[in-house]
Amino acid sequence: DQQVKQNSPSLSVQEGRISILNCDYTNSMFDYFLWYKKYPAEGPTFLISISSIKDKNEDGRFTVFLNKSAKHLSLHIVPSQPGDSAVYFCAASARRYGGSQGNLIFGKGTKLSVKP
Amino acid sequence: DAGITQSPRYKITETGRQVTLMCHQTWSHSYMFWYRQDLGHGLRLIYYSAAADITDKGEVPDGYVVSRSKTENFPLTLESATRSQTSVYFCASSDQAGLIYEQYFGPGTRLTVT
Question: What is the mean pLDDT of chain B?
């Protein structure tokens, strides 16, 4: 039973346009969400996070939106660049509960291709 | 070098062999994690450790053993490798103190069991 779902395995976007990556979750205990970016043959790298007390967090070209009622978050990349081509993982945690509940649960990832 | 390193980066082993994957971090992070990445599954937690001598199972622990005698090292051992353990293995560490909650990943070890 997947608690974190990324339903789009891949996404192709033109350079300069907006990329929107989506993530849905089922566990209402999740209170902290992260996005990771992964290039081939490298480990995932942290990109941006959001706490459940917020509905938006912005860092440069990257913005994460959280809709708690819909149990949905999205990552917006504006403008998209060819160097953004990577696999993006959504992750969630029930941080306030501590222990094993604080561990990250990852989605399956979405492969973003940004074409010049 | 500062950061988190994994060795070996690539390993081929035979079914039934014991193999140990090494993970070393220089940040003195209290938490360390082992994940495996498989096509169609994303990243799944195998084991984690909250501190030296404290380890616990994750989502997919069967067939794996971990130890953590020193804060900076967290080796993962496959006691009798099986083909289903062919995967890319990532080690990660985290401070998880206060607002710091991100996990920092190593470069991965690609393991093939023949």
Answer: 92
